[in-house]
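Record filed below.
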Amino acid sequence: MPWETCYTRDDGLNVLFSLLVLTTTLYLVERDDLLAAGILFLVGGSLVEYGWLGLTLGLAIWTHCKQPSLPAAAVALLACVGLWFTNGNLWALASVPLILAATRLNLRVPRLRWAFYAYYPLHLGVIWLIRSTMGDVG
């Protein structure tokens, strides 16, 4: 794909930084500090994994959840499709039917608030351990 060299982002900061930028941007929007939110969106989007498309997806979904609207849903869907330029596949769109189906279910799932803080570094450690034992295989 000729456009792959333009849009593939192997140098972006980890997805957790993307979530940090998104969360901080949303916080600033909530506080009506749109100038700071816009600056953070522009600068942060140039540094993080998934770039501006990922941040746009998060903002559109947040907007749609606060006040459901067709424009917010359309922007979210377009951003999800646009992620194809970042990751080279359309598997992100597989989440759309799941998300739509999930809105029809009323499941009670316990929130294990701190479980992710243990799981994330542990699974990265396991991946690193597996990768380090493989050498130059993959």
Notes: The chain is about 65% helix and 0% strand. The CA atoms of residues 30 and 47 lie 23 Å apart.
